[in-house]
Amino acid sequence: FFSLVLCVAMPPLQQDVPKEENVYESTRSLHEYLMMHFGTKTDLIEPEFEQYAPLSALDFPKRCAEECWAVASDPASAGLGGSKARVLDAGCAVGRSTFELARFFEDCVGMDFSQSFIDAANALKEAGTMGYTIATEGDLTKPATATVDSAIDRQRTTFKQGDACSLTAEAYGGKFGVILAANLLCRLPKPRAFLDSLPDLLVPGGLLVMPSPYTWLESYTRKEDWIGGYTDAEGNPVTSFEGLQKILGPKFDLVKTIDMPFFIRETRRKNQWSVSHCTIWRLK
Length: 284
Hints:
This protein is of the alpha/beta class and 284 residues long. It has helices at 27-38, 41-44, 60-72, 96-101, 115-127, 191-201, 240-248, and strands at 86-90, 107-112, 129-137, 140-147, 157-161, 176-180, 202-212, 230-231, 237-238, 252-265, 271-283.
């Protein structure tokens, strides 16, 4: 049978935030996400700084897609249909992972809360390229072009605006074989609602690939809704991985965990290097 993969990257307040108050709808945010998704080594790292750069952290969206394929193509996942699996990239932002998933899967759906991001992803699907700017210093910028690899069949992708905190299989044409939720969890206002919806979104034996840096902030998620990163009533520290095991454990088997670094350029001389903890789960 056919299955579906989902990759998500969502804004802070979901449907309760007016568009004009949503930072994810700004031109600046759009250009930053185009850079994070499509920026090349030359775009992101000045040649004179390359010797210092964490090059293994580049191309995070592509590596997420490759990890999805690695686990979906494993013999243990044979029932998911291999390349025939339907794929959903929830929190897809401007769509790099969705396009990269289309290297392997024939039906890839990208979903994000930001209409601006979905519009950009659809424009990239149509044209294959999109111009944007990269900050260099202060108000100074340099031009860049987001490019979808010509080897990718862009017609395998579909992009749709939606809310990761209220996903239903019916809204996306059926259940999924694989869900990719990349750097999404700690940016959702109701992460538990997303996690609780997963068993109904996945086919039996379906896969969840979920990298997260666990950077919980009250500006995105009320503390009472954090999955981890807090001290419980007995004074015991609760990590996000422990929280995930408690919530997902009854209905999922943990397949494996890996560390996935990622790189975010801020300016020519200032950047972020982070490491997501990627947990991969199989629905029982």
